[in-house]
């Protein structure tokens, strides 16, 4: 059967990344390619106990159809957290099947074919793909120290009056590890007001901070409700629970419910309940401390090894948290052949070309430090360093 | 904030149904309106035991990111079932977050704005809404005894050369309870071949058969892979697990994976595992027998009460299984005021106008018999009967 595919699904070019993931799909490969949490950090005992308790206590509540907006105790807990941590008080919480679904539902509610979405110059592949499946025109704004180049952002907004959405991962960004400064956050918000765009603020990593003071999200100075803030439990509890959330102006709620009913009706109550209980009855802060401790060590180790092993002309980011580091081959080089060679040598990583809103050639390579062991970090950076020195 | 909504989400007019669900949202209401399984039938003890066992045995597998195609043992089990039950052997299984997501992903892969989707004259509201959120043009084909009017179906296909999809619930259809005959199934398939359309065959109810021999799905005589068959565990295990599946030609798999990664990445492994274990290690057949026994009694009771209480000019369907009965006010009447009055009188039900592909006035009313108790069935039909006689 030769299916006549939609224009929109056809706009996603994932041939290269699929090929790379296939090449890298070998348990002996050093895993710098993906973005999996380190499995030893999953709160296995707590999750097991919470699941057993609730299935005994409220089996029907965990098995019957449930609300599209989400499990009310979890909504209340997240509402309180947004208020206590960020002073965000006026908005609603809407539970999603992972933060990925937040991007899908926002796109469904706001994007018509041809509308522009402005992204950071390197951004999270799967959410860019989500926008592509709505026929969006993606425009990247170069990243510098402290976030997007503001002049380029304003130029992009002026050049694309059909911009509906600015998509930004302000803290420990995927893929670069860059954090947007407080000043840039404010300026980006004001530009969104000036050009009447909605901001989708994707914040899955901010709890994983190794150093420095927390920075308020853009949502915290949202005067008119144009910021849709998304959080996730995938990095801080467990991805397989598929629970994320939006903090969003109530004006969008009825259409988010429509969108949710058209996609998966509601998120699994059992996994929502697990997140709620873990947040409220377990020692969440101690758990985060364990994650921060381990990822911080791995990040420092990776950076130390890069400093020792990489030639001086190879620049890289030094994130204050999160899960990713980006390094750059010399200007003008294409990192794709390098990545293929690295995989041949047993080190999985991701070429920047797959992480660009407009697609195209890139000299960047994304490395993940949450998944590999310390021994793998030392060995993998050693291999990459040797390749770079021989280049 | 005044959000500029997409044309597509705006094409869903769920104001009436939202209002009706809000009016009917009262625990004292007799629940003929929804489509919930009867909670006493949930296999609570089995689900609790399976969840505890797997979280103890393979916690990391239940917590880490997983395959977008689904949990391999469940895929293998479903592949075998499709072969053993229906002789379907060449296709692939793709796990979805409820069968609702199957419709969403098929729409994402196949539909461009303005493409036509042909539906049964009354059809499942949420899936029609899914098509609407892709900007599809919905065309309804009148239902008669044994399924769609074939001449009208061919006329619709000829009049809409951009028909990408025929959407059909062939067995114990929601909302009418009608079952498409084997002859019509074959004819519908041949028309799909002639006009080169894909068939989306939605089959959540066929295990809940009260009488008569099972009828093979359209998928069983699919020569060229144009039938996407969807199954669900929502009605036969528990809806809150959010596990459904597609049996689909392998040509569509890469793009379904793309779509899945852009929406929720993967379905929850824990709930997939629960479905798998329940299918393979528990007595699934005995469980289905219990559901069939109870729903069959309730359906007979409801029909008996309708025969006793409804005036002779009120016609209704007599389903051989499933969860729904439809009755029709006299020709030309609008059932919406009747439904509002019924809700005032404490009986929730759904007006046909919300179940028509093109929207519009309808004399039909959908009744659900799986959720109410027997006492509620007797009392509720008594109230509706009194209203009809006084009309």
Gap between N and C termini of chain A: 46 Å
- Cα gyration radius of chain A (Å): 21 Å
The strand order across the widest sheet of chain A is: 2-10-9-8-7-3-4
Number of strands of chain A: 15
How are helices and strands ordered from N to C of chain A? HHEHHHEHEHEEEHEHEEEHHHEEHEEEH
What proportion of the residues of chain A form beta strands (DSSP E)?
15-25%
Structural class of chain A: alpha/beta
Per DSSP, the total helix count of chain A is 14
Q: Given the C-alpha coordinates, what overall shape of chain A results?
A: globular
Uncertain residue ranges of chain A = none
Detail the topology: elements first, then pairings.
Two copies of one chain form a homodimer.
Chain A: H1 7-10, H2 15-23, E1 30-31, H3 44-57, H4 59-63, H5 72-86, E2 92-96, H6 99-110, E3 116-120, H7 125-132, E4 137-141, E5 143-144, E6 147-148, H8 150-159, E7 163-168, H9 182-194, E8 198-202, E9 227-232, E10 244-248, H10 253-261, H11 269-281, H12 284-309, E11 315-316, E12 324-328, H13 335-344, E13 347-348, E14 350-351, E15 364-368, H14 374-390
Parallel strand pairs in A: 1-13, 3-4, 3-7, 7-8, 8-9
Antiparallel strand pairs in A: 2-10, 5-6, 9-10, 11-12, 12-15, 14-15
Helix pairs in contact in A: 3-11, 6-7, 6-10, 8-9, 12-14
């Amino acid at each position: 059967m030769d299916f006549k595919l939609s224009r929109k699904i056809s706009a996603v070019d994932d041939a290269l990344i699929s090929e790379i993931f296939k090449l890298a799909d070998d348990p002996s490969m050093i895993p710098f390619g993906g973005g999996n949490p380190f499995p030893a950090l999953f709160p296995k005992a707590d999750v097991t106990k919470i699941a057993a308790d609730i299935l005994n206590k409220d089996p029907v509540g965990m098995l019957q159809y449930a609300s599209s907006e989400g499990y009310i105790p979890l909504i209340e807990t997240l509402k309180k957290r947004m208020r206590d941590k960020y002073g965000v008080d006026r908005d609603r919480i809407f539970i999603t099947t992972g933060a990925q679904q937040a991007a899908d539902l926002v796109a469904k509610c706001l994007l018509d074919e041809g509308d522009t979405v402005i992204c950071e110059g390197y951004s999270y592949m799967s959410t860019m793909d989500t926008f592509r499946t709505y026929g969006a025109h993606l425009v990247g704004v170069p990243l510098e120290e402290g976030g997007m180049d503001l002049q380029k952002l304003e130029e992009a907004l002026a050049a694309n009056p059909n911009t509906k959405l600015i998509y930004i991962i302000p803290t420990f960004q995927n893929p670069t590890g860059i954090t947007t400064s407080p000043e840039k956050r404010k300026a980006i918000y004001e530009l969104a007001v000036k050009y009447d765009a909605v901001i989708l603020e994707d914040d899955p990593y901010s709890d994983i901070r190794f150093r420095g003071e927390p920075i308020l999200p853009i949502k915290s100075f949202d005067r008119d409700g144009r910021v849709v803030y998304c959080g996730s439990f995938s990095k801080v509890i467990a991805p397989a629970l598929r629970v994320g959330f939006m903090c969003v102006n109530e004006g969008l709620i009825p259409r988010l419910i429509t969108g949710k009913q058209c996609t998966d009706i509601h998120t699994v109550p059992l996994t929502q309940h697990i997140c709620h209980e873990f947040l409220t009855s377990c020692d969440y802060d101690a758990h985060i401390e364990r994650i921060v401790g381990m990822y911080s060590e791995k990040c420092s180790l990776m950076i130390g090894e890069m400093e020792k092993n990489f030639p001086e002309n190879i620049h890289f980011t030094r994130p204050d948290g999160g899960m990713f580091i980006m390094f750059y081959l010399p200007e003008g080089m294409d990192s794709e052949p390098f990545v293929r060679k690295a995989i041949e040598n047993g080190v999985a990583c991701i070429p920047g070309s797959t992480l660009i809103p407009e697609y195209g050639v890139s000299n960047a390579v994304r490395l993940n430090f949450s998944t590999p062991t310390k021994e793998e970090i030392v060995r993998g950076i050693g291999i990459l360093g040797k390749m770079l020195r021989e280049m």
